[in-house]
Design a protein that fits this description.
Layout lengths: L1 H17 L10 H8 L8 E3 L46 E7 L14 E8 L7 E9 L6 E9 L4 H10 L5 E2 L18 E5 L6 E2 L4 E5 L4 E9 L10 E7 L4 E9 L3 E2 L12 H12 L1 H15 L9 E7 L4 E9 L4 E8 L7 E6 L10 E8 L4 E8 L18 E2 L10 E7 L2
Parallel strand pairs: 9-12
Antiparallel strand pairs: 1-2, 2-11, 3-6, 3-10, 4-8, 4-9, 4-11, 5-7, 5-10, 12-21, 13-20, 14-19, 15-18, 15-21, 16-17, 16-19
Helix pairs in contact: 1-5, 2-4, 4-5
């Protein structure tokens, strides 16, 4: 344990850097084509505080059901799309801010492949220190949006965000990983997320006593990951943001990433079945930070740079500050089979916070759980299982050569990420 605690800060720094908490990658056109060629701030509409029905956008999937122990049922890899339910009524003290991508954006993979990460600056017009108490992120083209992350930009970094937007032709800028503004913090224990959407996500209401801090003058950056395996259609993703000026308990986001070290199956061969070549390929497509992410996760989670190939990978982190876990979610891509998050595994105090035994890419919504208190010295563990056999079953992966899979930004790469919403004493 002593070695793990000594190495963890360095490993965390590498992992966060590779998540682009302080920058974006530098994609390479030719490299991405080799892999996948086979197959200004914008204002908000302010709705006054009311107890009536809030307005929403479009249609999509129903939200994940709240769960006492974080158990999340899944139905496999096939999408289950149903009519989006009507938005909930505004609660006392809430107002609604509607922001959206300023004009329809036609995604284009800047690396010549099938993934486009685009960041857009949005202005929710926060005139007083406030809390976000709920959000509804609605992709304009849900079929091509892989995921969306909504970041907060503090007032001191607002000018840098608007400058970055102005310097880039068109609306927004390319941003693999994080926003690249250098304003997102440097800790896995306090990521600057306001909200996120992945298939299966819908309107998300926080419990009445908690909120995500949004100081006066804050901006938002909406990062949209477009999956262009089936072409590109103009998209105008929108967000309905519930805002309150009541005194609430701040909710932070804690990220629990783990390595992905999935070798090719016996009998399958190719140049990218070599791990070294696969890591270099990811770095060539998405920038040097992608390679640092792969190495940083090994250091963070295993205490060394030596990979342990296998379908199942995990990462155990020691809690350094007291907190209460209020919400949980998991994120993987198409080769995912299962994901779980455990508190103090293997002890008498063990508790499972999330157990998705059958991963469904189209049902990734966060769920509220019975509050789980964590103390310094407690351990949080995320465990993911991936399977190359999904390549034989999913049409979107047909024709893409098998390779050794590591953590990567592309839709046909993989991730293992636990996401916790926590409050602090």
């Amino acid at each position: 344990m002593t070695t793990r605690r000594r190495l963890a800060p360095r490993g965390a720094a590498l992992a966060v850097a590779a998540l682009r908490a302080t920058g974006c990658g530098n994609p390479n056109v030719a490299a991405q084509s080799r892999l996948e060629g086979h197959a200004g701030a914008h204002g908000a509409t302010v709705h006054p505080t009311a107890a009536g029905t809030a307005s929403g956008h479009g249609s999509g999937q129903v939200p994940a059901k709240p769960s006492d122990e974080g158990q999340s049922a899944a139905s496999g890899h096939s999408p289950t799309v149903v009519q989006r339910p009507a938005p909930a009524a505004l609660r006392p003290g809430e107002s609604l801010r509607s922001v959206e991508v300023p004009a329809p954006y036609t995604p284009r993979a800047p690396v010549g492949g099938t993934d486009d990460y685009r960041c857009f600056v949005l202005d929710p017009r926060i005139a007083r220190d406030s809390f976000v108490t709920g959000f509804d992120i609605v992709p304009g083209q849900a079929a091509e949006v892989h995921h969306v992350i909504l970041y907060r930009v503090p007032p001191g970094q607002a000018a840098a965000a608007t400058q970055r937007d102005a310097e880039t032709p068109g609306d927004g800028w390319t941003c693999f990983g994080g926003t690249g503004l250098g304003s997102e913090g440097s800790a896995l224990d306090d990521a600057p997320w306001v909200g996120a959407w992945a298939p299966g996500g819908s309107e998300r209401l926080l419990e009445p006593d908690i909120g995500i801090p949004l100081p006066k003058g804050s901006l938002l950056v909406l990062q949209v990951h477009y999956n262009l395996l089936h072409g590109a259609t103009p998209d105008r993703t929108a967000v309905d943001l519930r805002v309150s000026t009541k005194s609430l308990t701040p909710l932070d986001t804690m990220l629990l990433p783990a390595p992905v070290e999935l070798p090719c199956r016996p009998g399958h061969a190719g140049p990218l079945c070599d791990r070294g070549a696969a890591v270099l390929d990811v770095s060539a497509r998405f920038g040097a930070n992608s390679g640092r992410m792969v190495a940083g996760l090994l250091l963070l989670c295993q205490g060394s740079f030596t990979p342990r190939p296998g379908a199942t990978q995990s990462c155990t982190r020691t809690v350094e500050e007291p907190a209460t876990v209020r919400t949980v979610a998991g994120h993987m891509h198409r080769l995912g089979s299962s994901i779980r998050i455990d508190l103090n595994p293997g002890t008498a105090k063990a508790r499972t916070l999330l157990d998705t035994s059958v991963w469904d890419f189209d049902n990734q919504g966060a769920v509220s759980i019975r509050p789980a208190t964590v103390k310094p010295g407690d351990r949080l563990q995320v465990t993911c299982t991936h399977d190359q056999a999904w390549r034989d079953k999913l049409p979107e992966l047909h024709g893409i050569p098998e390779r050794y899979v590591v953590w990567g930004e592309g839709t046909t790469d993989e991730m293992c990420l636990g996401i916790l919403g926590v409050t602090r004493p």
